[in-house]
Amino acid sequence: MSNNPDWQARSLASVWHPCTQMQRATVVPPLPIARAQGPWLIDHEGQRYFDANSSWWVNLFGHADPGIVSALKQQLDLLPHVMLAGCTHAPAIELAERLSARTQGVLGHAFYASDGSSAVEIALKMSFHHWRNVGQPGKREFVCVRQSYHGETLGALAVTDVQVFRDAYHPLLLQAHQVASPDDRQARPGEDAQAVAYRAAHELENLLAQRHDQIAALIVEPLVQCATGMAMHHASYLQRVRALCDRYRVHLIADEIAVGCGRTGTFFACEQAGIWPDLVCLSKGITGGFLPLSLVLCRDTIYRAFLSDDVSRGFLHSHSYTGNALACRAALAVLDRFDSQDVLGRNAHEAAVLDQALQPLMAHPSVEHPRRRGMIWAFDVKAEYAQGRFAEAFHLAGRRHELLVRPIGRTVYLMPPYVLNDDLSRWLAERLQATLHETLHQTVQAHDADRTHQPPTA
Question: Using a CB cutoff of 8 Å and minimum separation of 24, what contacts does 447-450 make?
Fold first, then answer.
């Protein structure tokens, strides 16, 4: 059997890895994973790693979950795939019905795709096309929140404000309006998270008052802006945003790709604000981390605007694997788990256990802005401690402590699968603290070495 270095060499010779500067990958090669079970990833030499970010936030109930595996095996014998243009099948129908029911029928139709960026593209196009169909073609502008992330296809990237992703492609992008983030880390002296939310919503109000006749939609990540560093905000922001979109006749698009499926403590993050958007994007955890699937749920008022004998008024967007039967069946198995077990209640219990176990870490002098929303934990390492290649150093130290964790800049976060128990929660906190201590020790040593080798100043 080949060992880890063999697989690493073959991967570097043939695979272009995502979100990776491949020049640096020759120094820090990818970790070869041979198999996975529950929260554990196992490499080709038998070393295990706790999947602390759920394999990019997709895995809900652990790897190789028997219930989802069984559902997929049954579907595989019946119907792996059929095109959804002119055909239909039970998994796609049942999934759309059950997700709509979770919105109390407010969002009545599901349009399927394969990944999060595609879902965002669909929502943007639906919004613009809706306004055109109802006689307002001038509503063609979009609004996003500063530091937001919605994907890396060109439409999604246009409403993304993470410079490392979008700068190179700026000349290709539609120019969207940007408004203040409600990130509660931005609180001024005497402000709380609700005050930050109010201030951010006020900036949006000023823009909509001026440009609502040209603006089609606002897109937001409810409660947590994930890719910018798990920036969390008060639910009152969503309430104000919903009211403003209603007042100015602007669609509200909720990007729940990362925060849906229970990550924030409710199945949809918007539930915590008591509002429903006009369109919601889902992906990542919807299949439990088994297969690619995304979808957009929309209000019936949007759907009805496309009904016509004129084919050009129809929504003709399509993907070859739209509504893939296997992926939809996996998603149904995920919903079965939420329906048959108290997933959210169990998560709340384990979150409290992990909160308690993380207290010493969150009180460390290098740590600022400790925060949690549902099953998402994050803290920032103060800039003076996060020297050099901090995120890379933390990732490598985590491997030595049986953790797979990928900080975002100087933000360290946990988004584990929903399989924690009390002992595992305490183990996770202990290993994360050990990883931080090792990383800080290494970065201080590297910083001191750099200073030692600096030439004397004049």
Answer: 447/387, 447/388
